[in-house]
Amino acid sequence: MCSIIYELLISTVSSYFLGDSVRQFSIIIGFYLAAMGLGSWLSRYFVKDLMFSFIWIEIILGLVGAFSVPLCYIYFSYADFEGFNIFILGLIIIIGTLTGLEVPILTQLLQGDKLESKELSDVLTLDYIGALVATLIFPFVLIPFMGVYKSSLLFGFLNIFIGVANFIFFRSMIERTRKRDAILWTVSISFIALIGFAGFRANQFIDNWNTSVFKHPVVYNESTPYQNIILTDNGAEFRLYLNSAIQFSSRDEYRYHEALVHVGGMQLPNVKHVAILGGGEGLALREVLKYPELESVSLIELDPEIIEISKEFSQIRTLNEDALSDPKVDIINDDAFVWLMANEKKFDLIIADLPDPTNESLSRLYSISFYNLVQNSLNEGGAFVTQATSPELSPSAFWCIEKSMIESGFKKTYPYSINVPSFGNWGFVLASKQEMDFAIRPELELKFLEAESFDHIFYFPSDIKVSEVESNRLDRPVIMKYYLKHWRSLHAEKI
């Protein structure tokens, strides 16, 4: 049970840091199973004092498992992507090998005790049931209530506790000497004390790590079943990060959200009914509420915690002007793709303010199938706009989004970009079923967009135009490959 938890924890941390969750989980599971095979093969060399060997394996596994996540955090701060990949594979090979030793040794112990095959099968059945329990408590209990760091320490402690319990209850099966007993007790107590100290200082460690990674002091850090949420505040600037990726800065978020909402919205004859996919912090919603003719807004946010903190934190409420409490707003906690499949209402404007495509689940929100669903929910004269990553740092991903929109059937697409100091050059793609003429609506009283903006936001220099890209499909999420390739190369340059 414990080793399954370690495997899931390392896979999750790897996905947080590197993206591409399917790849990370697949590689780690594969190496974990192979290492278990190696452990099973090595078990042939354990022929004497099997119970004592089993106890030591539990204790060592507990230590490695307990500090697997803390070591990942520390190593990621200093290593490049390749180095981090090698490190986590080394960890999982150690854990898998130790786990692979357990079952054969346990089997030999049971056979030596002359237990019947039924009793042996009962033990293995309990082992598999434990694996099921582990996979269920991981997403529903550990991640939302403890987080990856404290979970690894907890299960490391349990591993060592199991080893010590076996030593106490099965001491008659062990070749005991005073020296061996003293070493085992000293090591076990030392490891438990070390884990206890790490647990006691866990919050301080995480805060220090966040301080080394993030620009400003961290004021909120929680993991939900969907993502890790971090808020930073230095008094002059407030930021939101999801899975370590910045979502907005109070210093310049108005630029991003005005460009996201109004470049398309101002060209429509009426903006009466709007759907916002993502954007649970309410900043795009604030801009939508500026349209005097607006009648209703459906805000589709997967993670309820984003909504809650955006209502609770005064810094966010000040920024979004309490938009989430407006009576015109209907907040729906659902996956955008699933919601669009079931939706029967038509909208004048649909806005996708979604995270970047770092994994398969997010990549489907930039797919041809997704854009087909969007069109089904648009009025005949309606428009759709999405954030589209950076055309400068992730050009292939940016142009992949536009190509996917075109292939989904949108008659007109308008890629554009603006400068957001905290993001850099950031891109969007606007799409509609008919051609648009671009103009400003002065009554909206915008801070950033003006009539002259339309003279340059649609211009892209030739060095960031990419023509040879594939469209993004549900069964082939190439956008994730495009996005992560550029992101990782940028990170490598910083290292």
TrEMBL record:
Amino-acid positions noted as binding S-methyl-5'-thioadenosine in the UniProt annotation, renumbered to this chain: Q227, E301, D335, A336
Active site: D353
Catalysed reaction, written as an equation: S-adenosyl 3-(methylsulfanyl)propylamine + putrescine = S-methyl-5'-thioadenosine + spermidine + H(+)
Membrane topology: Multi-pass membrane protein
Residue span(s) of domain PABS: 193-433
Enzyme class: transferase
Main location: membrane
Pfam family, one: Spermine_synth
Highest taxon in the source lineage: Bacteria
InterPro entries named among the record's database cross-references: PABS (IPR030374), PABS_CS (IPR030373), SAM-dependent_MTases_sf (IPR029063), Spermi_synthase (IPR001045)
GO cellular component: plasma membrane
Gene Ontology MF annotations: spermidine synthase activity; thermospermine synthase activity
EC number in record: 2.5.1.16
Protein's pathway: Amine and polyamine biosynthesis; spermidine biosynthesis; spermidine from putrescine: step 1/1
UniProt binding sites for spermidine: H257, E281
Quaternary structure, from the entry: Homodimer or homotetramer.
PANTHER family assigned to the protein according to its UniProt record, in alphabetical order: THERMOSPERMINE SYNTHASE ACAULIS5
Its job: Catalyzes the irreversible transfer of a propylamine group from the amino donor S-adenosylmethioninamine (decarboxy-AdoMet) to putrescine (1,4-diaminobutane) to yield spermidine.
Protein's name in the database: Polyamine aminopropyltransferase
Organism encoding this protein: Portibacter lacus
